[in-house]
Amino acid sequence: MPQPEHQRFDLAVVGLGAFGSAVAYHASALGLRVVGFDRHQPPHQQGSSHTETRVTRLAVGEGTHLVPFAKRSHAIWRAIEADHHQCLGTALSLFHLTGGLFIGRPDDSVDERWGNFVHDAAAVAAATQLPFEHLSAAECRQRFPQLLVSESEAIGYDPNGGLVMIEQAIAAQLALAQHRGAELHVNCPVRAVTPDGHGVLLDTENGTFSADQVVICAGAWSPAFADPDRLRITRQVVYWFEAQDLEEWRPDRIGFGIWAGRSIEDYLGLFAAPIGTTLGVKLLSEQFVDTTTATTVDRTVSDEETASFYERLVAPRLSGVTNHCLRAEVCLYTNTVDDGFLIDSHPESEAVTVVSACSGHGFKHSTAIGEALARRAAGLDHQNLDPFRRQNRPRWIDAG
Ligand SMILES: Cc1cc2nc3c(=O)[nH]c(=O)nc-3n(C[C@H](O)[C@H](O)[C@H](O)COP(=O)(O)OP(=O)(O)OC[C@H]3O[C@@H](n4cnc5c(N)ncnc54)[C@H](O)[C@@H]3O)c2cc1C
Fold first, then answer.
1. pTM listed for this prediction
2. How far apart (Å, rounded) are the C-alpha atoms in residues 17 and 6?
3. Which residue ranges form the domains of the chain, and what is each CATH number?
4. Which of 133, 134, 211, 230 would give a disulfide with 157, using CB separation of 3.0 to 4.6 Å?
5. Residue 135 Cα, ligand 1 centroid: separation in angstroms?
6. pLDDT tens digits for 349-365?
7. Residue 358 CA: which ligand 1 atom is closest?
């Protein structure tokens, strides 16, 4: 059956999760004609952008090049709250400025992912003139009696850290993009992206579309477009455990904790419970042993897995959290080999950009990166995206 003819768009966005919704939002605000596609209906629970909250921090131990994006994202979340209220009449609270803790080993006996994270975060804060506090174990126990820290641990505090409400942020950016004229197709997978000389053609479930440029933000599905052998998808589990006194875990008492031990799996992330979220303490660890795919991942969480997580990581570290698990969900990481980001264009067409593989720490930067990409697409000055280009350019498979 012949496909319907569609108008040519300035910018197409493939994947409307954290990054794609941001690109669509900012591009439509700049007046670009935007078309967006998602294989599901975002915000959804099949990718990397669900489970209510994400940590954001300005003392970004992963590198000073990320600080401008985290900072700018904080300002944009506030602007989106105001924009949403003004344009759509609903008040939102997307960003909770809470402060947050980093706890780790002060020596070299640390895992290679988090490294000496307290030291790295402090160094980035110092290099970028941001405040950062060092706490003794006694000071930490006094301020945060929920945490069973030991004298042998290094403890840092970022007063500019906080939590972002992720599903609400994605929904708000998509609603505002549509409000400004973006054409969004949900439950509509893009099957192929082909440079056509002037721009790109997109073969989708709803027909063929053409655009001057495309940004592919396919998250855990990125290996279908680029670098299948250099991207690793891993299954991560997020838990909510019952608190003896939930008030101790509200954002005004504690924001987040990033607690690294002596191995990659000896890691605990903890998140406060803002009003309107699941009524428990949100906790997670990380694993990089079992790789998977977005379509074949096991999304069930067994009782044994939950009990092992609690015994191994929660009971020794937290006070006032019971072993009653209220909820557990599987979420996906997409990692590059060096745990960095992948933002690069097709070797034969600058019209095609892939943005993803944000390696488990991307949400906090997503709206500022989306803004930079939208401004670049509009030919405007923008934050420098060169640090995210790959030295070994991505190997493209489907886009040309
Ligand atoms: C458990 C967990 C904890 C995390 N904690 C933090 C944290 O505290 N702080 C932080 O900054 N980051 C954190 N991250 C990382 C952060 O959440 C991710 O970097 C970010 O959400 C990734 O966004 P994305 O847009 O790449 O992917 P997604 O939001 O998953 O979006 C990809 C979208 O592409 C769509 N799609 C895929 N293929 C196609 C196709 N062919 N056609 C159309 N649509 C398609 C999918 O349906 C999906 O909606 C965490 C991640 C996880 C899993």
1. 0.96
2. 24
3. 8-53+166-229+338-388 (3.50.50.60), 100-159+232-335 (3.30.9.10)
4. 133
5. 33
6. 889 999 987 888 999 99
7. 19
